[in-house]
C-alpha cells in the first residue's frame, strides 16, 4: 500500500506539466493559425515578429515547469553575453532536455522567441508541432548522402534577407550520447581514428555538414558561435556517469543541478573553409571532452562535479514564466467550457494533425 502510494505520488510529479503543456497545444496552434492567415499578404518580417512573440509566450510556460516547478539549480560558467545576438548554438547532445537548455540560456538574453532548431527529419511527423517548427524557422535535415544542402541554404538565406533574429541550435553529434550504448560510442571512436582525429570519451564525433552550411550561409549576418557544454548532475551506484534524464524523469525532479559552460567564439575566429572547419569543430569537441573528463573523472575530488572557473547560480524569476501559464491555461479552460469550444479544441487536435502530416508530405 505504502509503495503504491509512493509510486503514485512520483508519477503525479510529471502529470501536471504534461497535462498543461499538451493540453494548451491546440490553443497555441489556433492562435498561430489565425495569425498565419492574417499575415499571408504581409511582408515576412511582420509574420516572423508576431510568431516570435507567440513562441516566446509558449516557451516561457515550458520553462515554468522545467525550471520553477522542478526547482533545478542552473549553474552557468564562462561568458554568456547579457544582450541578444545572432548566433549559432553548438552543444553536446545527451537528452531530450537539451532542447530546453537552449531556452534556459536564451531567456537570460531576452532572445527566447528567436530560438530555432536544426532537427532530425523524422520529427516532422510530430502531431501539430511537426508542421509548425519549420514555420518558426526550424530546419529538418537528413543524414549523410540524403542531406539537402541547397534547401537548407535557401531557407537560411531567406531569414537573412528578412532580418530574422537568429538563435540557431545545432547538435553536431547528430544523435544522443548514452554511456550505456557502448556500440555507438565505439563506432564513433573508430570513425575518428580512421579520419586521423582525436578519439573522444564523453561526446561523439561531431558531424560537420549542418554547422558548415549554417555558418557559410549566415557568416555576414551572425555575431558569434556559442560553444555550449552541458552536464546533468548525477552518477550511478558505481560513481560513474549515468544516462542523462529524459523529460519525464527531469519533471519528476531527478536532476538537482544543470552545469552549463558557455564559450563565446567571435565569427572572425571561425574558419570558413569546410575542411578547416571540420578540424576546428572536432577541436571544439575535444575541449568539451576535456571539460567532461575533468567533471566526471578528475583525480582531484575538489575538481570533480564542476567545470573549471567561477560558476554563477542563475535563478529564473517566476514573474517571467507564470503569466504565460495563466494566459494559455485560462484560454484553454475557457474554450473547453462551451460545446462549440470543445468541438473546436478536438478538431484542432485531429484535423490539425492530419493537415500537418499532409503539408509535410507535400513539402517532402
Automatic annotation (TrEMBL):
Q: State its location(s).
A: Endoplasmic reticulum membrane
Endoplasmic reticulum listed as a keyword: yes
Coiled-coil residues are none
Q: This protein's superkingdom? A: Eukaryota
Q: Which residues cross the membrane?
A: 14-35, 344-362
**Cellular component terms, GO, for this chain's entry?**
endoplasmic reticulum membrane; mitochondrion
**Which keywords has UniProt assigned to this entry?**
Acyltransferase, Endoplasmic reticulum, Lipid biosynthesis, Lipid metabolism, Membrane, Phospholipid biosynthesis, Phospholipid metabolism, Transferase, Transmembrane, Transmembrane helix
UniProt-recorded name of the protein: Phospholipid/glycerol acyltransferase domain-containing protein
Organism listed in the record: Propithecus coquereli (Coquerel's sifaka)
Amino acid at each position: 500500500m505504502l509503495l503504491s502510494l509512493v509510486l503514485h505520488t512520483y508519477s503525479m510529479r510529471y502529470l501536471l506539466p504534461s497535462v498543461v503543456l499538451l493540453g494548451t497545444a491546440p490553443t497555441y496552434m489556433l492562435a498561430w493559425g489565425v495569425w498565419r492567415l492574417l499575415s499571408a499578404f504581409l511582408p515576412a518580417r511582420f509574420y516572423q515578429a508576431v510568431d516570435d512573440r507567440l513562441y516566446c509566450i509558449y516557451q516561457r510556460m515550458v520553462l515554468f515547469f522545467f525550471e520553477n516547478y522542478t526547482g533545478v539549480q542552473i549553474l552557468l560558467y564562462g561568458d554568456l553575453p547579457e544582450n541578444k545576438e545572432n548566433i549559432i548554438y553548438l552543444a553536446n547532445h545527451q537528452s531530450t532536455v537539451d532542447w530546453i537548455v537552449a531556452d534556459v540560456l536564451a531567456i537570460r538574453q531576452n532572445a527566447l522567441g528567436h530560438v530555432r532548431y536544426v532537427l532530425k527529419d523524422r520529427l516532422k511527423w510530430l502531431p501539430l508541432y511537426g508542421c509548425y517548427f519549420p514555420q518558426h524557422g526550424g530546419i529538418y535535415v537528413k543524414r549523410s548522402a540524403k542531406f539537402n544542402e541547397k534547401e537548407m541554404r535557401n531557407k537560411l538565406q531567406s531569414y537573412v534577407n528578412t532580418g530574422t533574429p537568429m538563435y540557431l541550435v545545432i547538435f553536431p553529434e547528430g544523435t544522443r550520447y548514452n554511456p550505456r550504448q557502448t556500440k555507438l560510442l565505439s563506432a564513433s571512436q573508430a570513425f575518428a581514428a580512421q579520419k586521423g582525429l582525436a578519439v573522444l570519451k564523453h561526446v561523439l564525433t561531431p558531424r560537420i555538414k549542418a554547422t558548415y552550411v549554417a555558418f557559410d550561409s549566415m557568416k555576414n549576418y551572425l555575431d558569434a558561435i556559442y560553444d555550449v557544454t552541458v552536464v546533468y548532475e548525477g552518477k550511478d551506484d558505481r560513481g560513474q556517469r549515468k544516462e542523462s534524464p529524459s523529460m519525464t524523469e527531469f519533471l519528476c525532479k531527478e536532476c538537482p543541478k544543470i552545469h552549463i559552460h558557455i564559450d563565446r567564439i567571435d565569427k572572425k575566429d571561425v574558419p570558413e573553409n569546410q575542411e578547416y572547419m571540420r578540424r576546428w569543430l572536432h577541436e571544439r569537441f575535444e575541449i568539451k571532452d576535456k571539460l567532461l573528463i575533468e567533471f566526471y573523472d578528475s583525480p582531484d575530488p575538489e575538481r570533480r562535479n564542476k567545470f573549471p572557473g567561477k560558476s554563477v547560480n542563475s535563478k529564473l524569476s517566476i514573474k517571467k514564466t507564470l503569466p504565460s501559464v495563466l494566459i494559455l491555461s485560462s484560454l484553454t479552460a475557457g474554450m473547453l467550457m462551451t460545446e462549440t469550444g470543445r468541438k473546436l479544441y478536438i478538431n484542432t487536435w485531429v484535423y490539425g494533425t492530419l493537415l500537418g502530416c499532409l503539408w509535410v508530405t507535400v513539402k517532402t
